[in-house]
Amino acid sequence: MLRKLLAILSAFLCFGLANQGHAEDGYDLWLRYQPLESAAKARAAPWVTAMIASTSSPTIGVALEELQRGVQGMLGAPLARREGVQDGAVLLTSAGSPLLQGLDLPFAKLGEEGYLIRSATVQGKRVTVIAGNRDIGVLYGVFRFLKLLQTGQPIDNLDLTDAPKLKVRVLNHWDNLNRHVERGYSGLSIWDWQKLPGFRDPRYTDYARANASIGINGTVLTNVNANADILRPDYLQKVKALAEIFRPYGIKVYLTARFSAPIELGKLKTADPLDPEVRAWWKAKIDEIYTVIPDFGGLLVKANSEGQPGPADYKRSHAEGANMLADALAPHHGIVMWRAFVYAAENAEDRHKQAYSEFQPLDGRFRDNVLVQVKNGAIDFQPREPFHPLFGAMPKTPLMMEFQITKEYLGFATHLAYLGTMWEEALQADTFRPNKGSTVARVIETPVDADAATGMAGVANIGSDRNWSGSQFDQANWYAFGRFAWDPGAKAEPIARDWAAMTWGNDPAVIAPVVRMMLGSREAVVDYMTPLGLTHQMATGHHYGPGPWVSDLARPEWNPVYYAKAAPDGIGFDRTAKGSDALSQYAPALVKSWGSLKSVPDELLLWFHHVPWDYRMKSGRTLWDALVIHYDTGIDKVRGMQADWAGLRGKVDAQRWAEVRDFLAIQLAEAIWWRDASIAWFQSISKRPLPEGHKPPAHDLDYYKAITMPYAPGWGE
Ligand code: GCW
Fold first, then answer.
1. Rounded to two decimals, what is the model's pTM?
2. Which has the closest alpha carbon to 639: 356, 416, 392, 478?
3. Which pLDDT does position 22 carry in this prediction?
4. What is the reported pLDDT for 616?
5. CA 128, CA 258: separation in Å to the nearest integer?
6. Which of the following is catalytic: 380, 445, 670, 676?
7. Which atom of ligand 1 is nearest to the CA of 183?
């Protein structure tokens, strides 16, 4: 009797665990490997009876480990490694293996990192072959195979191949050596320099697993606002330990180079890139790095921007600065990622124009192992920007995309904003260079010559928080970044769907609302923060919350008023030929369509035009009314996300559910704050009544101006 009772109780507990009670904190990311429901288990089991590896290497070792972990988790039984081929085995192997004789497999199209997964008969047994030209392809294939299981796909008749379209797929950590993360909203830097190299936190391995699962093959460990100390011998030993952990996962380590390091570390009088002593110092330093880390990836540099030192300090060009480092890296096959995010204090030119003005004339002047790293838009990771005009305008220079995964301008970790839709929009934008159809994705994935590098960088949102990214949903942005870096032509919706299934469970009644929330979330932020092409209205310094009135900062382009140009006659930044003419940096087709009020899309209206408050929108409303309506629409969208999420109570685990619920409540309160503060400010200039049915802000303007956010993370030291 007692036994029976216990059995009932334990069945009840298990049910509770699987459905809601189990405390998940997000640490497992999208690699949760939760038990499949029984029908799916029964379907899959005959196809994963054993694993076989025809070669051995550290990479194959971690591939086997991952396969075992995933299958054990999802099917509930251990997966043994066998020598002989058997029915249902998963066979990890590479091109040229005698086991594959007679199978016509498309290795030629896999490149160095691609893979194939094929249901096949080997030695008379039905097996699943996972193979690549190199072991890293096999590891990527294993993750893909596990994803098929995680997302409930059949695995009995597989024939797929995949290969990355970009070569360099890197995270950029803006992590300072004191573990403060610039624009980081998820705790401290995960690099614990004090305990390295002695203590290799298992978290580093989980970091590598997560990255490899989405194809990321490099990581820049340190902030672009760089500290030269990272290049010291003692730090290099610590970097070496990380490189060793990441190596089996196909992840190379990169560092940021402070341009003035020869002065700070080498005690030279100058850092002039044409000075022979400076060149010799860098060459020796880079040789030293490679003796410690033989597969070191290379250097990322922010120069002559926001106070960072650079070649312009010596009247040298960006190309001269980059090429000096490139020459020292070339013998080791290292690369330089040289950022194009520049704007200068002395420069009165529209900030939108400065990167293009400085870099475009340098097209063709960079060494082969230099990639110029360009942010997706010309200003700075705003909720919406048109694509950066440099894309398509430097056909002789490898340009790599820089996206910001951490949400500096989209509500930090507490606002739910899936960035996949924003990145798809940027990548699918047509540059019209050299002709129609030359999307940004095409530009970055087409090498400038046969062996030229291609790449994408994502400013990481990873920190020491248990859930890695500061919120459950921000994990989706890390995930999506990897997917877009693998394939810039990818679409945001299927990526969201995969992530939702792996992160929240395979129940269609869960996936549908989660995906709906994600797909609408970024536009919600645009609506309640910066609708209709407004930009950079965030409060000073930390960028947390609204500050559209800020006008007292030293540099004009740090002030929100610089971007909105709200005045009694209207609002918006005239970037047409009558204004700053930034528009002329784009192809003629875009100059034409964005330059005309008739054809500019509503969402870029105030980015390119200054228009009267009573300007008639395509909808027939006045601009002022449309603006107010957008702010309110943003709030409604957040309420919609809350309703979707409320419906998931009990359908996902309780702990993560409650966290998301609480974050959505913060988001709603802050969306209202954004709306009220923005309307209070703009109404003080427009002097127009609010459209009917739209409530006045809860407080007067002074109330919003007086709000301070001393606890905003990610800013200052
Ligand atoms: O977005 C801005 C940030 C800075 C950052 C800079 C950059 C690392 O506000 O914190 O500095 O861009 O991209 O260099």
1. 0.96
2. 416
3. 56
4. 98
5. 48
6. 380
7. 10
